[in-house]
Automatic annotation (TrEMBL):
Pathway: Purine metabolism; guanine degradation; xanthine from guanine: step 1/1. It catalyses: guanine + H2O + H(+) = xanthine + NH4(+). Belongs to the metallo-dependent hydrolases superfamily. ATZ/TRZ family. Residues 65-430 form the Amidohydrolase-related domain. The gene is guaD. The lineage of its organism: Bacteria, Thermotogati, Deinococcota, Deinococci, Deinococcales. It holds the Pfam family Amidohydro_1. This is Guanine deaminase. Binds 1 zinc ion per subunit. Catalyzes the hydrolytic deamination of guanine, producing xanthine and ammonia. Its cofactor is Zn(2+). Gene3D superfamilies: Metal-dependent hydrolases, Urease, subunit C, domain 1. Its EC number is 3.5.4.3. Keywords: Hydrolase, Metal-binding, Zinc. It comes from Deinococcus aerolatus.
Length: 454
């Protein structure tokens, strides 16, 4: 790309609001100087940066707010067409909605179409990086990685493996899980913006043999990621206990196999024991909190306070299609609701927390905190410009916001896919809402600030 000075109202959280009361950084008339490789080299107020770099072309994002690209740490690619299966709890929903659909991805044309729909869902909602729960078929994963590269998104994804209690066509063997995983890692891990995640579906559907095959891959390729589900639903937890009588608890089924570490992300964790939280913290694992899914499937209210106090890192995931859509704004709002509903056991969340959980926290969960997650110099320019259509409710509320935190709260309370105007990954524009100009003309520092006069 051409080096560019972006002018916008922007907000980001380079540190965690759980430990730093001043984590939210805002510029009402901000500048982000992005070099030819798509990396932010300077970040600050526009006038200062423009004076220092008068010859650098300026792109003005007038109105709305620029945020770091959203990072979704738990989302199922094969489930985009079954979003909205209401009225069931986890195991019934899997049987009736998710697994029959996932079986259809054995068909390559079907998988190709679903891949395209899924990736559109991510980028049109401002998600620039995702830890993607894949398909049970190697062919469908090759199609996914090819399409994700074309879409320009950062993805961490892997073949999902299971050998019991699902449907026969979704089962594999430990030998095949290893050989197909190895082939996918060799072809895709570290290529472009793709990374590989070793992905047993959950201990309920994975024998010790499958978990050992996963561990063999992680030993052989020490920098791959690991993801699975944990402690989502009480019936699931009880079944896992019966299937692994020698394990201390659900976490221990993964721990004994050697699957836990800094690059492990465990989805849900709604019903953890104190021992499990202590062990998750000791391993440096992260929890992917999926509040819309937890509410929709009636799984429970996520104990965020216990995770934070135990030192377990938490990020957000949409859990499409148990979740209700791709919007990380909606997920942030639901995370806030969940803590409100927990009363004294909840952890009150500010707008800064919601931004952190949907951006920077995800980068840290994926061990990518040095590259993405905020607008500090040295980070890739991964960004979402939220620019509500004129006259929309969000537009009205933003125009009357008297401070950046108020504007941020308005974005989470009112924002939807319709407000995502443009999205960049590594400086490459990967999404433009129809009707939004592809490039704003060059402007001078004399132009008025974009929004939120201070
Ligand atoms: Zn899931």
């Amino acid at each position: 790309m051409t080096p560019t000075l972006f002018r916008a109202t922007f907000m980001h959280t380079p540190s965690s609001p759980f430990t730093d009361a001043g984590a939210l950084r805002t510029e009402t008339d901000g500048g982000l100087l992005v070099d030819g490789s798509g990396v932010i080299v300077q970040s600050g107020d526009f006038a200062t940066l423009h004076a220092a770099h008068p010859d650098t072309p300026v792109t003005t994002l007038r109105g709305g707010v620029l945020l770091p690209g959203f990072i979704d740490t738990h989302v199922h690619y094969p489930q985009v067409r079954v979003i909205g299966g209401l009225g069931m709890s986890l195991l019934d929903w899997l049987d009736r909605c998710a697994l029959p659909e996932e079986a259809r991805l054995a068909d390559a044309p079907y998988a190709r179409a679903v891949t395209s729909e899924f990736l559109h869902g991510l980028r049109s909602n401002g998600t620039t990086t995702a830890l993607v729960f894949g398909a049970h078929f190697k062919g469908a994963m090759d199609l996914f990685f090819e399409a994700a590269a074309d879409a320009g998104l950062r993805t961490v994804a892997g073949l999902v493996v299971s050998d019991r209690l699902l449907r026969g066509e979704l089962h594999t063997t430990p030998e095949r899980a290893y050989s197909e995983g190895k082939a996918l890692i060799e072809r895709w891990h570290g290529v472009g913006r793709a990374r590989y995640a070793v992905t047993p579906r959950f201990s309920l559907s994975a024998s010790e043999g499958i978990l050992d095959a996963c561990a063999a891959l992680m030993t052989e390729y020490s920098d791959v990621h690991f993801t699975s589900h944990i402690n989502e639903n009480l019936r699931e937890v009880q079944t896992v206990r019966e299937l692994f009588p020698g394990s201390l608890d659900y976490l221990d089924t993964y721990d004994r196999a050697g699957l836990l570490g800094r690059r492990s992300v465990l989805a849900h964790s709604v019903h953890p024991t104190d021992r499990e939280l202590g062990q998750m913290a000791a391993h440096g694992c992260s929890a992917a909190h999926c509040p819309c899914s937890n509410a929709s499937l009636g799984s429970g209210l996520f104990p965020l306070r216990r995770h934070v106090h135990a030192g377990v890192h938490v990020a957000l995931g949409t859990d499409v299609g148990g979740g209700t859509g791709f919007s990380m704004l909606k997920e942030g709002l639901q995370a806030y609701f969940t803590q409100q509903l927990l009363g004294a056991a909840g952890l009150p969340l500010t707008p800064a927390h919601l931004l952190y959980l949907s951006t920077r926290a995800g980068a840290e969960a994926l061990d990518m905190g040095g590259q993405i997650g905020d607008f500090s110099p040295g980070k890739a320019f991964d960004a979402v410009w939220l620019r509500p259509p004129e006259g929309s409710t969000l537009d009205t509320v933003l125009n009357h916001a008297s401070s950046p935190p108020e504007a941020l709260a308005a974005l989470f309370a009112n924002g939807t896919q319709a407000d995502v105007a443009q999205v960049w990954v590594g400086g490459d524009r990967v999404y433009v809402r129809s009707g939004v100009p592809a490039a704003a003309p060059q402007v001078t520092a004399a132009d008025p600030p974009p929004v939120l006069s201070s």
